[in-house]
Amino acid sequence: MTSLLVIIVLVLLAVAIWQLTKIFDLTQVGNSSADDSQIASDNDNNVQGYLMFGFLAFIYIFTIYGLVKWGDLPLHTPASEHGSDVDTLMNITWVLIFIVQAITQVLLHFFAFKYRGKKDQKATFFADNNKLEAIWSSIPAVVLAGLILYGLYAWNNIMFVDEDEEVIVIELYAQQFKWTARYAGADNVLGKANVRLIDGVNAVGMDLSDPNAQDDFVASELHIPKGKKVLFKIRSQDVLHSAYMPHFRAQMNCVPGMVTQFAFTPVYTTAEYRELPFMVEKVTRINDLRAKKSAELVAAGNTALDPYSFDYLLLCNKICGASHYNMQMKIVVDTPEEYKAWLSDKVALVKEVKASNEPAPAADGASTDTTVVSSDTVASKVAMK
Q1: Rounded to two decimals, what is the model's pTM?
Q2: Regarding beta strands 222-225 and 328-334, do their DSSP bridges make them parallel or antiparallel, or are they unpaired?
Q3: 325-345 pLDDT, tens digit each
Q4: Structural domains of the chain sorted by starting position, each given as residue range(s) with its CATH number in brackets
């Protein structure tokens, strides 16, 4: 307790000394002998004005350099029908941001130079300017309104799913830290599910008694056909996740306790996307880097890196825990024929659960003994009755 009081007294003493120092500085205002080294001269203001122009040049030189150096890193050709709409909206937004940024930054730095401080110069004070305020309020309002309306139009077109349209229904089930895909089966209707029903093989909590669930099956790799709209029903077992498929320009939050959805139509199979010129160049560049790194690893006695091959991915776009970075699922876009062939050998989850609950076959000797004991037991119970 004494130590605490000493600390408090020292803090208060330091504050008192600081206040006395400030009071002393205030008493020196107007004193001709006071130090005026902190007052900017005309030369200082000229230097600051030219530095503002230098900083403006730095901004745009670095921006242009970044576009040239790293302009190929963003996502390229969209792999879904609606992807071009998303890219168009994004490009319009980028252009507007760049125009506004260019105008405001040029004016900001120009005025900072033009109206830099000069000896005996006084600033003109304007209480208000209704015309100027109307201009800088109405133009952004009109531009933003147009951008928002176009965004809503694009969003409604993307999210709309016709009830009469034939779609493939797939559930994406998120949990720390993996994805599971549940396919609706031949009836194209997902069975009911609840996290309270999760047990063993039934890792998605499917209601095994639901008639619509009898043909549902699960997969650890997501296969979808080219040219067919896929409707994803999205659930989360634990925390907030986000189903993100960047090449399809698709993202939807996975919220515990509710089902969200997103639909899109793939336009490139995995094999076709791998053959696009930009992707061939990108994969070649990556593998050149991996080859150099592999040479270093092998020289150090380690295992070489495997060559990179492009695959669509389903990622989690919410920081959901320690292994968030590794929560991903491979997506394969097949031709319709390949997709049918892939479906042909899939086993319904109901059958998998039944198979897992069946007792394991015992050895021949043990099986015979068990049968005898079982028969004796039944006979004893009958005799007792």
Answers
A1: 0.73
A2: parallel
A3: 899 999 999 999 999 999 998
A4: 43-117+132-159 (no CATH), 168-273+309-355 (2.60.40.420)
